[in-house]
Amino acid sequence: MLKAFIMIKMELEIHAYGMLHPGHMEWMPDGRLLVSEFGRGRVLDVTKGGNMRDAIPFAYNLSHPAAILPYKDRLLVADAGFNAILDITEGGDQSRPKIVVKVSGPYGLAVYHNEIYSTFSTQTESGIVKIGKNGEVIRFVTGFPVVYSIWSKIYKLISPCGHWQIPPGELDILIFSHRGLGKLYDISQGGDFNYLEQNSLLAKGLNEQIGMIYNKHDKNLYIVESKGADVKKCKFRGIENS
């Protein structure tokens, strides 16, 4: 029996432009698409597209906004310049920011088991903190080496250390991608760098990976590399219980 194949063609066009070093983007529950503009300290509503250079921003007078995270009834952003996770739910002028919690050099945000996780960076180490129910900052992953990049020189900030992915279904793990090291780790249980190297290293030999996504259909993880200009597929060979 012959299988039917559907040929899908995509036409690419510029949707929004005129931004200075846009960072993260996130769909809102109400259908808006927001983008953080790391270079101008703004969060922009790019839903309708067009030239964003002089557009009225959703939020402005931020420092260096990165990850955007809708969480319950709030909209959070990691701001590496303010060294804090901010509540920008109401939008507008953020020159007097509403600080949720102070974190050194935050960049990435994720929710795992209904708890917020954020990357952090100092002059001596980078890692991940977990935000407790009462707002306490818990050091969750520690001791990762500091990695500098061109962005560190431009913005005088420590380079962010990675990206996240949470595969749905039977793989209940939090995967962390460290771009500078070219490695993937399962950080679900936390720990220091040496422990993760020995017990939770999932993949290595990547080339400055900048994004990844899990495909629930073939159950593989796909990773985009910036330096190698490749997309790599990581196959899960099974999870060992220790």
Q: Ends: how far apart?
A: 45 Å
Strand-residue fraction? 35-45%
Shape: globular
* Highest CATH level, the class of the largest domain: Mainly Beta
Q: What is the count of β-strands? A: 23
How are helices and strands ordered from N to C?
A: EEEEEEEEEEEEEEEHEEEEHEEEE
CATH topology of the largest domain: Neuraminidase
**CATH architecture label of the largest domain:** 6 Propeller
Name the helicity range.
Answer: under 10%
Number of domains: 2
Biggest beta sheet summary = 5 strands, mixed
The average pLDDT score comes to 84
Spatial order of the strands forming the largest sheet: 12-13-14-15-19
Uncertain residue ranges: none
What class, by secondary structure content? mainly beta
**CATH homolog superfamily of the largest domain:** TolB, C-terminal domain
Radius of gyration: 19 Å
Number of helices: 2
InterPro entries: 6-blade_b-propeller_TolB-like
Keywords:
242 residues, mainly beta, Neuraminidase, five-stranded mixed beta sheet, four-stranded antiparallel beta sheet, 2 helices, 6-blade_b-propeller_TolB-like
Describe this structure in words.
This protein is mainly beta and 242 residues long. The chain folds into 2 domains: 14-160, 6 Propeller (Neuraminidase), CATH 2.120.10.30; 161-242. The protein has 2 helices and 23 strands. It has a 5-stranded mixed β-sheet. The protein is globular, with a radius of gyration of 19 Å. It starts with 15 loop residues before the first strand and ends in a 7-residue tail after the last strand. The model has no long low-confidence stretch (mean pLDDT 84). InterPro entries: 6-blade_b-propeller_TolB-like.
